[in-house]
Amino acid sequence: MNPRKQSLYKQLIGDSFFYLLTKIIPGITGLLSIIVFIRWVGPDGYGQFTLLLSFIMAAGALSSGWLNQAILRYFSQDENKEEFPAAIFRGILISFLLGFIILLVGFQFFLDLDIIAFVIAYISFISIILFKLRSVLLQAGLKAKKVAQITAVQAILGLIIPLIFLIRINHYLAIIAGISLAYLLIGYKSIFSFIKFSTNSITSSNNVLSKYYNFGIPLSFRIFLGLFISFLDRWFITFFLNESITGLYAGYSEIIIKVFSIILFPITLAIHPRVTKLWNEGERKKSIQLVKKGIGIQSGIFLLAFVIFLLFEEQFFNLSLILIPELSSEFLSLGIPIFISGFLWQISLLVHKPLELTEKPLKMVWAIIAALVVAVVGNIIFLPRIGVIATAYSSIASASVYIIIIILFVLNKRKLSE
Fold first, then answer.
1. Using an 8 Å Cβ cutoff, are 258 and 102 in contact?
2. Cα–Cα distance list, 248 to 6, 137, 227, 261, 418 (Å)
3. For 105, which DSSP code?
4. How far is it, in rounded angstroms, from Cα 391 to Cα 325?
5. Which one in 160, 250, 362, 377 has a CA-CA gap of 20 to 30 Å to 152?
6. CA dihedral in degrees (272, 218, 55, 153; nearest 10)?
7. Distance of alpha carbon 189 from alpha carbon 135, whole angstroms
8. Tens digit of pLDDT for each residue in 344-369?
9. What is the mean pLDDT of residues 23-38?
């Protein structure tokens, strides 16, 4: 192995370690949050909480995902440009406006909630956008240690503040409000960092912003649909069954996925900015090789983890039963499909990377639309007949369809690294 490549992999391992730290503390606090919140507001309240939060996350992806993805893609090219701060500031304001409209539509057609819930949801939306923007800027700047720090602080606050709110107001909206404040306390600096810019940079920022629109909007739509699938899973369970089962399904699946993502997601976070930087510098073959390396590492980790989970599935369920006593025996059969679907959606973030690098996000949109159709059809046909297990297996089918279509697109796209 040549010294430069060895150095690259050493940097990747180092970044993965710091990003692992960003997942350990949020993973632990996330597990504690599931246990505490379900017991505090009950499965019904937790079902309402997770339904609303999943829609807020989807709305955030649709309205601001384009900006975050464009920053990750072009940061190494644009960070020193005079018009960059103005473009980011205008992008934030556009995201706020789009989010307001999306939430308004969502509350009209999917969420039967009052004006207080809408206000809390919109504040939560803003705070999440600002936090994610700050995190993305640090990630794009290859500041993995700083990302680890702010993520850890946010995760701790995201448990403590909602608990304080719940002591005063025993309602699931108190959890949303507390999480919002936790995000806001860390993310508010994002917007202030870009307020000061010259009048000339406002006009010249049109070119930068236009480039970000063209690349980011299809990607934003793809991320939104991916999160919207998760929202629809919960919405269908509530519609065909009840909010209590929605809360239990969300809680059990989040326990599995949080444990799993602690291991895998740091690799994705570490690879993304380095792959993009290599591509932007003309090192396209090395960029694609790094993507393949990441897929291989994640697949190896998954196979090992899957064997362990398979051997100790019943013990894992019994532990989950201690944490969430309301779980029934039917949830035992959900572990494996949830585990597999979590991995498939995780690895899809690297599988579609070649299309992202070659600026072909529309192909990703077509793939996620097909995945969405599979998820909707699977839930509508099978959920009323065989219960909540239909949602878990529909998620596997949906993720598989997405990955297969992406691979076909990538195979048809010749000379990606030339």
1. no
2. 46, 35, 19, 20, 49
3. H
4. 22
5. 250
6. 30
7. 11
8. 998 898 898 888 888 787 898 999 99
9. 81
